[in-house]
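Deliverable D4.2, example record:
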Amino acid sequence: MAERVAFIGLGVMGGPIAGHLARAGHQVTVYNRTASKAARWVEQYGGSTAQTPAAAAAGAVAVFVCVGNDDDVRAVTTAPTGALAEMRRGAVLVDHTTTSATLARELAAAGRARGVGFVDAPVSGGQPGAEQGTLTVMCGGEPDDYARAEPLLRCYARMVKRLGPAGSGQLAKMVNQICIAGLVEGLAEALHFAKQAGLDPADVIEVISKGAAQSWQMENRHRQMLEGRYDFGFAVDWMRKDLGILLDEARRNGAHLPVTALVDQFYAEVQALGGGRWDTSSLMARLEALKKTRSGRRS
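Output generated by the structure prediction step:
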């Protein structure tokens, strides 16, 4: 059934996600801080634009948010011109931004005060997953709120699951980022070692990717890492934002994450190399830079 929905935030993730909702036949009103981007989205997908998040949310059964960080989410939801100011009772607010679990609980409480449901729904799959409609969506929220949102989420996801109350989706995304950080560093070190050992890294990957070492990162990132090409994908700046959130959560819940903390510092070194907007696979660039530095010292 076609629904009236709003989408706030049309970046590399939000734009394609909103597009899938439009293609599924839903009536989509969009808001973006840069109005020209919203106008271009409407030219491509139809629908309409709004001047404020509140105006976009008026009359919608569901409002989706996909922006940058906790403060960005607050600016488009709980601020005076935010979506919650105009959301109708019984509607549901869905936040795809990767944020703190604390913010998710804050938004759930703000929604309850207005008779609005809330689902924190961070995603995994990157820009390709958003464009292809194959995202994984990790959700937190009340069962009834999730049930209202789920059919819409399935317009652009291959996996959608409620994992508990508000904040659970964000906590699951932290688990996801812990895994990715360790895998990318392991892959970078493996490729670096193969090169230093005189092996053809591409040949080695062809073999070991068929065994227990196989991972999504290995299959989808090793070629670019060997080429030294990082001008795409999930930016180091964004990953450090996510790692900062999860390390802060770990300090609260007592989890011991020594490898994740170390990889976070490695990403800080990539930023110092000028790679803040490079893909997270650029951990390989850090190892290559260290190699050059050490070679220079020996010479």
